[in-house]
Amino acid sequence: MTSAYFIYNKGKVIQALRYHFISRKEIKVMMILINVYAILSAVLFYLKVISPLAFLLSSALWFILMLLFWFLLPTIIYKKVPLFKDRLKANLTGSYFGIENSKGNRDWEWKEFSTWMESPHFFHLYFNSRSFFIIPKEAFEGDEIHEARKIFASKINGGR
Question: Does domain 2-8+83-155 have CATH number 3.40.50.20?
Answer without folding.
Answer: no
